[in-house]
Specification:
Layout: H1 2-16, H2 18-23, E1 31-32, E2 35-36, E3 42-43, E4 51-54, E5 57-61, E6 68-71, E7 78-81, E8 85-88, E9 92-97, E10 103-107, E11 109-112, E12 118-120, E13 124-129, E14 132-139, E15 145-152, E16 169-173, E17 180-186, E18 200-207, H3 223-230, E19 233-237, H4 244-247, E20 259-263, E21 271-275, E22 279-280, E23 290-291, E24 304-309, E25 312-317, E26 321-323, E27 332-334, H5 342-355, E28 359-360, E29 365-369, E30 379-381, E31 400-402, E32 407-408
This protein binds 2-acetamido-2-deoxy-beta-D-glucopyranose (10 copies).
Length: about 425
């Protein structure tokens, strides 16, 4: 009995996670702690894309609980892997001062990713937090890029909570494609006079949508650790250093069936693969991207019929409806001569009268009109009453009616009788 139960537990993940199959290479682990590792990245021997060395290896260190994923034998801890970027834990420069202005701690940052498939994304903002701090960001490689920002303030300033507004916090843009860069902190007055509420200054890169500045950050001893943990740096990645057009001719071209090649926009060369519209899966893993059944969450009109076709879907309409069947286009419209009885009009007239707090005067009929016939046989009753009965009929195309309605604020009875 126990064996069977265990077997179930072991087999269940294989049966139910069909996406896991497309995530990692066969026989490879696809998770390290909470991180989902999607090929071309991989955990363990021969699990990542091999053609460009071991840059896509994820070192899953199980001596931590939960295990921590690091990039390519380095010390960059990965937070998230997406189809076009990576997020890693932050690098925070920090400089702290005593009351008398002596620097007691000075940690600068120096990163060199030259020769790797990785570079800083321009969605990062270079950020300085402090009230007597300035930092210079230097990006080397084959271009010389310098940028910087300074923040100067006293306790009396009005700090805007949640926003980096140049008061206590400043931010500046960086271009994408930087691989070799450094930053460290400097000060004008060594934090003298402000050390009571702001002993340290900080500089770091931050995904512009994630970092929120708070005044309490100035005196929070755990600010650096919190930022490292919670504010990721966005890293662009690419396969190799060739453009799509060149890579397509090579034997190790990575984009498999039904996928498109997308040139990296970092200026460093390289490309990524993307499933073509109407297909999904992992474009780097055999058999490539597969046809999606778009009809699963009906993309057509509610009275439409969806047909799954290769790479797309078609919409049409059910019997009794016409149109193109699409949700946002012509949709599906009921054929006009189906079920439109005269008593529907009687009901509508009644509803309008009620809305205006009026009564419809009984015994008034609307007649169909024909050529030379004013009062045709088909009629519409303006209000149903026990004394007046008319035949149930249905409206048809091209019929003409003279609508005759009398309303009253009184009883709705003709006083002449
Ligand atoms: C990794 O791949 C190489 C070349 O394909 C092969 O020689 C080697 O045995 C593989 N190693 C493992 C652990 O599968
Ligand atoms: C895992 O991390 C520990 C602690 O930092 C370190 O000593 C060890 O070498 C790491 N193991 C691997 C395989 O990287
Ligand atoms: C970064 O690494 C590249 C290649 O490894 C090297 O040429 C360059 O000088 C390094 N940059 C710095 C600032 O050390
Ligand atoms: C700040 O500290 C540095 C080094 O300790 C010193 O050279 C400089 O004069 C100090 N500046 C001020 C304004 O105290
Ligand atoms: C610090 O405070 C002293 C005394 O109030 C003042 O003389 C000095 O100018 C202040 N320094 C700065 C940098 O604000
Ligand atoms: C920050 O993290 C480091 C390393 O994990 C730890 O040694 C240090 O005590 C932490 N600092 C604070 C203020 O939590
Ligand atoms: C492109 O990558 C290849 C192999 O990784 C390397 O030998 C070559 O120098 C790179 N070319 C450029 C322009 O970086
Ligand atoms: C990949 O394709 C999806 C859907 O077709 C699109 O939204 C996305 O922008 C594409 N990514 C790249 C890097 O081209
Ligand atoms: C899908 O719609 C197109 C355009 O209306 C039509 O040409 C095609 O034959 C349809 N395909 C199927 C499988 O219904
Ligand atoms: C559309 O749906 C997918 C997923 O179920 C199938 O794999 C495809 O074969 C199917 N395409 C066609 C043309 O039927």
């Amino acid at each position: 009995m126990l064996t069977i139960n265990l077997l179930w537990l072991l087999l269940a993940p294989l049966f139910f996670s069909s996406t896991a199959a497309a995530t990692a290479k066969q026989g490879c682990e696809h998770k390290c702690g909470d991180l989902i590792v999607r090929y071309p990245f991989g955990i363990g021997k021969n699990c990542s894309i091999g053609i460009i060395g071991s840059w896509f290896d994820v070192n899953c260190n199980t001596s931590f609980n939960p295990p921590k994923p690091f990039l390519a034998n380095g010390n960059l801890e990965i937070v998230k892997i997406s189809s076009d970027e990576l997020r890693v834990k932050n690098w925070v420069a920090m400089k702290c001062y005593t009351e008398t202005g002596d620097a007691i701690r000075d940690d600068g940052i120096n990163i060199n990713l030259t020769g790797t498939p990785y570079s800083l994304a321009d969605s990062n903002k270079f950020t300085v937090v402090g009230c007597d701090d300035q930092s210079l960001f230097r990006g080397a490689s084959d271009r010389n890029f310098y940028s910087g920002c300074l923040s100067f303030c006293s306790e009396r300033e009005h700090f805007v909570d949640g926003f980096c507004t140049r008061i206590g916090c400043c931010q500046t843009s960086i271009p994408n494609g930087l691989q070799d860069f450094s930053y460290l902190l400097g000060s004008f007055y060594n934090h003298t006079n402000i050390s009571s509420f702001n002993p340290c200054g900080y500089a770091f890169l931050a995904d512009q949508d994630v970092f929120k500045f708070h005044e309490s950050d100035f005196s929070d001893e755990s600010f650096r650790n919190r930022t490292i943990e919670n504010v990721p740096i966005v890293i662009d990645w690419a396969i190799g250093n060739q453009s799509c057009s060149v890579a397509k001719k090579s034997t190790d071209y990575a984009c498999l069936q039904n996928s498109d090649c997308v040139d990296s926009d970092t200026g460093l060369g390289g490309y990524r693969c993307n499933c073509s519209t109407g297909y999904d899966g992992n474009p780097y893993l055999s058999p490539g991207c597969t046809d999606v059944n778009e009809c699963e969450n009906n993309p057509c009109d509610e009275n439409g019929i969806c047909t799954n076709i290769t790479g797309s879907f078609n919409c049409s309409c059910k019997d009794g409806y016409f149109g193109d069947g699409t949700k946002n286009g012509i949709r599906c419209i009921a054929h006009q001569n189906t079920q439109f009885p005269n008593k529907d009009v009687t009901e509508v007239i009644q509803k309008v009268a009620v809305a205006y707090d009026c009564k419809i005067v009984e015994g008034v009929l609307s007649h169909q009109m024909k050529q030379f016939v004013i009062d045709g046989n088909k009629v519409v009753l303006s209000v149903s009453a026990p004394e007046t009965q008319v035949d149930d009929t249905e409206f048809e195309e091209n019929e003409v009616y003279a609508i005759d309605i009398v309303t009253s604020t009184g009883e709705g009875k003709d006083q002449r009788y």
